Every structure is written in C-alpha cells, then in structure tokens.
Predict the 3D structure of the following.
Amino acid sequence: MEAIANQLNLNFEYFPAVSKFNRKELEKFNSGKLLNSQKACYIGHYKVYQSIIANGYDNALILEDDVDIEMNIVNIMTDILPDLPIGWDLLYLGHCGWEINGEYVGSSNEHKIYKSNEPGCTHAYAVSSLGANKLLNKLELENPQDPIDLEIIEKIQQGIIISYSFQPQVIVQWRSIDNPSDVNPGSNLGSYPLKNSTLHYLGFSWDYE
C-alpha cells in the first residue's frame, strides 16, 4: 500500500483492522454462521462508517489492504466524477461482479459507471456521509446473517442504498500465492486484469495458480 501511495502520489489514512483472533470484538456477534474472519471484516468496515460520521467527512474511499490500482486513477476519477448522480450513497471502484445490467450514468474513455446491481466484495468502494448513516442504521451489527458485502447488496437491491459501480474496475483485489485472502481462506480467485497495473509497474506479481 505504501508503494502504491508513493507511486501515485496518494495520501492514505490507515485504519486498524479487527483481528479474527480478537475475541472481545467478535463476542459482539451472536451469529455462528459467519467465519471469524468474516465477522472481523464486518466489524472493521462498520467502524470505518462510524469514523466517517465522527470526523465529519463528506465522503471517503475505503480500500482493503490487498488492492492494485490503475496508474491513471486520478485522471479517470477527474473525468468521470462529474457524471456521478447527486445523492449517491456508495460508488464501487472495484467489486466482484459484472455491473453492466444497471442504468448507465457516465464514462471516462473505456471506464463506465452503472447503477449497481450485485457488486460484491468490499475491497474498493466510496461511501458518502449519507451512505455511512444509512449503513449504520440498516446493517445488523449483533447478529448478521451474511458477510458484509452480501448484506450491502441486499440493501442495494431493496432500494435502501443508492449505489453505482465502475465497469471495468479501476481497483482490483491483488491475489498471489504468497498473498491469499484473509477473509476467505483458501479462495483461489484470481485478480481481474487492469489496463495499467501499478503493482506490475512496481515489479510485483499477482498471478494466482
């Protein structure tokens, strides 16, 4: 993450993750359905929403620590953000879906924004202050039935959360043999290809076999 920040001249604020071994935090959950890693991920994102409100941010981009980013991300965002409808709650810059079935709202060269349908994953998404308030009010913290990305999808499909998604993605999950998923151990999902990968430029490999 530091290498990406330095290369792209971005400023990241690091938020402490919740460990899957943190019994004190995980005891808040009554659900036995979720893995401890999924519970930890859920609490971590929920705490970020709380931080957005507590700090008075208008919006924030939430990145998990296993991402790869298009090298021209700043230019892409500068071009496309004016097309983002007023009143948005979430904007998925990366996801685990194929988001071309929703309403088309804008584009920057090959990158387009659609109304979210079933984005999936939480490795790269922006949250407005309005969206953070909705998530805090509508998500179940004590007894969730599904991982947080699926809970959010449900709220999107119910029309509670107004969400948009990039297609193709501009931020993807970085997967390699020595960098597996902490949330879903054993997952062998490869990375979606970027046109201009920052990690490839820096000499990292994310090929998963």
In short: Helices lie at 2-8, 23-26, 36-54, 73-80, 129-138, 148-157, 198-201. The radius of gyration is 17 Å. The chain has a mean pLDDT of 86. Strands lie at 59-63, 67-69, 90-92, 104-108, 111-115, 124-128, 163-167, 171-173.
